[in-house]
Automatic annotation (TrEMBL), chains A, B:
Coiled coil: none annotated. InterPro entries: CTDL_fold, DinB-like, OvoA_Cterm, OvoA_Nterm, SAM-dependent_MTases_sf, Sulfatase_Mod_Factor_Kinase, SUMF_dom, SUMF_sf. It comes from Rouxiella badensis. Transmembrane segments: none annotated. GO terms for biological process: methylation. This is SAM-dependent methyltransferase. Residues 206-459 form the Sulfatase-modifying factor enzyme-like domain.
């Protein structure tokens, strides 16, 4: 396989992504230097394809800056990240570094970036790139380096700059395909594949290949640079499915076009219909001509238009790919759809090794063959073709972090804005995917309407993508409570929920059922479930209950914590992190309820824990009265409160204590003794239990609650 | 002296205030029991003077409850305090104990208590008193007791109840004098003095007696129960002065009345004129008849009217006494005025011993002689008469706590509401002053328009009463800062100002001048003054500067800290408590100023400390720019901040850090390095210094500031 490699027809020797570990520091420094200069040169050489300055300064699509921005951007990125990391002290050009810092994320198709930019002249940017090039080489030569390179290494910042530039190598090549062809000039060092079947009927027929049920663990473990979203771990059980042997070719996709697929809303979901109505698309975006005249259709490549290569993979967005699948499913009666990310990994088991170890690329990837797609039956890989390479393959999976995901602090907006449920993962890489992009572990995601060098293969699968949106919780109160209940210790103060449950476990013998009333995001409920048979977590706030329920489902909750000014920290909470098993979690039932209006359940509990509840109720006396009936004789009521009475929560006439009665100070503790005296016996001296709620990186609420323990008579 | 003691004419044997210490616990228990029952019986016997129920249920004056309230009140007080202290578990009668709990403080003369009260019947209250009497005896017999009795002893609560009843013995007797005389019935066990000169010209002539300059320390140190305001310590230097040998008699005061003193506003201060115009007074309140007909004037005693005893002390409020002094000063050309509290203590040196040790009372006090005043020349005491006894003597001194004053938590509204600059101290006691009231250390104070069995003696003195109002600071922010800067440690976190000055002292060699910018209530300024020659404390808030200035003057600042709900803690701050000497304090100059608009002083400093300032400025960049010119070359700038940027204080565009710049996170520390780089060298790695600001008894802000240290180039 891969016998007639065309390198030498112009493309430079393919690069290998470098390994983070090694024994020889200076050798590694040389590797980094080479990898940097290779990437830099490759990126600049791509811009040779632009025929004129107009091509630099005109937007290819409304949602992105013109190419002049990207020409400078990859250089400014090095300087901005090195400045942010405190690794260099001086800028090269503050103006350029400010202007070319922030790209435009792909948004909805009808968003318009109407800002006016006064872009620098090309010569100015060439000069600037020269200066940055020298500065980075100097930096690489002088930076402290120890092996393996890790997140904290200065070299990681350099690798980040290199891999960032390699991403823009690909995305800029897409933007070039979207410019008028006359603004481009084909270059011998960016050669297109010459092999193509221009007779539609000659295109190979696709078939389905079966794959057995598989268990896989996703998450990067290899020894190369990765973006933060690649790390972590996800265990997957993938049911048996079938997958198309080849990517869908232009010919195969034409059947959908011919069948009026672009005109029939039934194949399109709501987002797809919206895009269709906005774009007025009638065929794939890189097709040139009219869908009704297939014989004279052309395909737009990087710098030229060629007669339609019907056996090359079709390039579409995810909306078009999904529409094709629906049509095909209807047509065949099979549950045809796009694969999940995990299903792609099942396919990927058919390909040996990974890019750093490839002697020769097993597919049209890593710029190892051409500067274009090639026939879908050109590169067999196991029982399939093009599992990697040729064009990216859309999946149904919205991108999200794996369990244990942590944001890289130096590029905290690389992944997190895409964890919005709207960005679908693409897998496999294209002909121009190099470096990290060409790795098995790489994960990129785009809005479903967006174009890349991306097509698809379909699967026959019963999978149903959980369209769970798991974005960062931005509700400040929910975030604060997640951090309070699941986050780290501050000032060495032990976890409050755990401390309260420790007390409960000392005084409650019968561990039948427990009620955690005012459970917030549920930590104490889960802690109780370690030893109680049944736990009810109740809170007035549905927002909290939703969070607790998602934790029961095994989800990881992400939240943002204010750090300093507008800067935030990305955090996560999950039951596995606190060592709660799914069985334990299942013992907890979370319900929304009002502690001041308890429903007359038949149920009563061996323990009721009311933590940080009393002084947030509008009628705490009523709660204290009603709760008695919910506790079995001999059962225990634990009340923990800092007695922070505020009229905002409790009308002053309802404060049980912290008031003057007959002119005398009546503390809340005295009031509790009086109110509970009839039904309860106080069995412990009151305890002080501290807790800390973090507000920013440096500011915290540090409170000492009083815990009183009462046994029902 | 005091040879013809009249006890036996009806008054019971005088009591002695009991000592707190002793060797025999059970003997002390008996003493307490006796003291309680004596007081209780004495109080009830006073009410024998009321002739009918109308006398119980009609208000004597609009500002106070009717006597029925006071009849029950002293009993409910025991129960309410014992409940509040958690020493008893059950009430005797919740309704009565709620209704008779709170008296009406003497207010302005035109305040009216218009509440409707449904007072209990007399028989009901008699029954109630009986129950309380039995309960308290039982309590005294059973209470844990160890010697000496202190603030925490259960016995202290009993003594509080006893002394409280003795106060009301006196104030109720005043109210009885203010009821129509026909509602009273003279009782043989409340005998008035029979000795009186009813011929005005026969009244003894007053003279002035000289007293030398004296140094005294005020503040209770004896071994008896005291109210919280008596404790603490005040060192006084009292210049030489003269004092009237006798109290001002009715005859002597008549000269002022005759001279038209009540009609001439020049003798009355503003408050006096207001009272005069409201009351339409033309002569002292207990005089009966017309000022123009002195021959037939009578004097109202407790239960009768008697022909005017011209040689008895006149009874007036402080406004009348002060008016008399002004008139007398004009008349004589001498600086006649009322004495200060300290001047009274100079006089008090002429009287040996104190009430607990008296075999026979040296004056008309402690109910040792009569149930009325007596002639002003009846009881010689040293070179004077009536330094103690006969009637209370008004001073010019507004009551306030001595240095080190602490509120007794079980009666925290006994003293503190009178620390308002409007309550003048009375000294010396009257014929009915017993128990604590009869002690040298006792301190009572009333609004200046109020009547007691009180008159005055005058002094020729150059003293000028500092009419400093030193009430409790109720501005929450000022209180929080006083506590933050001068209060105790919380969570064992060291004082923040001191911690910062420790850092300063490590890096600043030349200790010439220092600027503490954003000094708040000045703690760091004072700490700097320990080693710097000159310190400027600057703050934008005049409220803070006022506090700092008063501390420089040696004043104690009192403030309230929220404790729980509406309950507060009474706190105080002073330089002596933190070991700052007056010389050190004088090195500090406090000025109001704007850190974002620094005046171009010629001055520059060896040290500028900017603590918790940066993130509260509207333009921190300007401050960082301007401050450079204020620091000598080689001088040091210390910035301490938690970088809590809030738009409330700093418009977002002015945040120096905690922002994204060119898409990269820019921390405030990085921003500081950049902004200060030109003029400064960073000479220390940044330090984390924690601080705690208490919000309630259980809730705190716990913050970790970053301290950066910069040397001016």
């Amino acid at each position: 396989m891969a016998s007639n490699k065309t390198v030498g027809a112009g493309l430079p020797e393919p690069t290998h992504t470098l390994l983070l570990s090694g024994n020889d520091v200076e050798q590694k420094r040389d590797e980094i230097l080479n990898y940097f200069t290779q990437t830099w040169a490759l990126y600049e050489s791509l811009f040779d394809c632009l025929a004129n300055e107009r091509a630099y300064f005109t937007k290819a699509i409304s949602l992105r800056h013109p190419l002049i921005f990207y020409f400078g951007h990859t250089a400014t990125f090095y300087i901005n990240k090195l400045m942010a990391a405190g690794l260099i002290e001086d800028r090269i050009d503050p103006h350029i570094e400010a202007m070319l810092a922030i790209g435009v994320d792909e948004m909805s198709w009808d968003d318009l970036d109407t800002s006016h930019y006064d872009w620098p002249a090309l010569a100015e940017l060439r000069d600037y790139r020269g200066k940055v090039h020298r500065r980075i080489i100097e930096f690489i030569k002088e930076m402290p380096l120890s092996l393996p390179i890790d997140w904290e290494s200065p070299a990681w910042v350099i690798l980040m700059g290199i891999e960032h530039e390699r991403i823009h190598l690909e995305t800029s090549s897409v933007l070039m395909r979207q410019l008028p062809v006359e603004w481009l000039q084909p270059q011998p060092h960016w050669p297109a594949c010459q092999r193509a079947r221009t007779d539609r009927t000659a295109a190979p027929e696709n078939t389905l290949v079966s794959l057995p049920e598989t268990t896989l663990t996703l998450g990067k473990t290899d020894d190369t640079y990765g973006w933060d979203n690649e790390y972590g771990r996800l265990d997957c059980d993938i049911k048996a499915f079938k997958a198309s042997k080849m990517l869908v070719s232009n010919a195969e996709f034409y059947e959908f076009v011919q069948a009026g697929g672009y005109q029939d809303p039934q194949w399109w979901d709501e987002e797809g219909q919206g895009w269709l109505s906005f774009s007025k698309a009638e065929m794939p975006t890189f097709w040139v001509g009219a869908a009704s005249k297939p014989a004279i259709l052309k395909l737009r490549l990087l710098a030229e238009e060629v007669p339609m290569p019907w056996d090359w993979p079709v390039e579409v967005n995810q909306l078009e790919a999904a529409a094709f699948c629906r049509w095909k499913a209807e047509d065949t009666g099979k549950s045809i759809q796009l694969p999940t990310e995990a299903e792609w990994y099942v396919l990927r088991q058919q390909v040996e090794g990974d890019q750093p170890g490839w002697d020769q690329a097993p597919g049209n990837i890593n710029l190892a063959w051409w500067a274009s797609s090639c026939p879908v039956d050109r590169f067999p890989q196991g029982d399939f073709y093009d599992i990697v390479g040729n064009v990216w393959q859309w999946t149904t999976t919205p991108i999200s972090g794996f369990d244990g995901f942590k944001v890289h602090p130096l590029y905290d907006d690389f992944s997190t804005p895409t964890f919005d449920g709207k960005h679908a993962i693409i897998k496999g890489g294209s002909w121009i995917s190099t470096g990290n992009e060409a790795l098995k572990s790489s994960r990129y995601a785009f809005r479903r309407h967006f174009f890349q060098h991306a097509g698809f293969r379909y699967v026959v699968s019963t999978h149903q993508e959980k369209l769970t949106v798991n974005p960062y919780e931005t509700d400040l109160l929910v975030s604060q409570y997640l951090d309070f209940q699941y986050g780290p210790r501050y000032f060495n103060v032990p976890n409050y929920a755990r401390a309260l449950v420790d007390i409960a476990e000392q005084v409650v013998e019968k561990r039948g059922s427990a009620l955690d009333i005012g459970c917030a995001t549920g930590r104490a409920s889960f802690e109780l479930a370690r030893t109680f048979d049944q736990v009810t977590g109740m809170d007035y706030s549905a927002r909290f209950i939703d969070v607790a329920l998602s934790l029961v489902r095994g989800e990881e909750r992400r939240y943002l914590m204010p750090e300093e000014g507008e800067l935030v920290q990305y955090c996560q909470a999950s039951l596995s992190e606190i060592g709660i098993t799914p069985e334990q979690a299942k013992r907890v039932q979370f319900v929304q309820g009002d502690a001041c209006n308890l429903k007359p359940h038949s149920e009563s509990y061996d323990l009721v824990l009311a933590s940080n509840l009393l002084d947030r109720l509008r009628d705490p006396r009523r709660f204290l009265h009603d709760i008695s009936a919910k506790i079995v004789s001999g059962g225990v009521l634990i009340i923990s409160s800092p007695y922070t009475w505020l009229e905002e929560f409790t009308p002053k006439e309802n404060w049980i204590g912290g008031v003057r009665e007959n002119g005398e100070a009546l503390s809340s503790y005295q009031a509790l003794q009086r109110l509970l005296d009839g039904d309860f016996e106080e069995i412990n001296p009151p305890l002080d239990v501290p807790f800390v709620i973090r507000e920013t990186a440096r500011k915290h609420q540090h409170t000492v609650a009083q815990v009183t323990v009462w046994r029902k008579r």
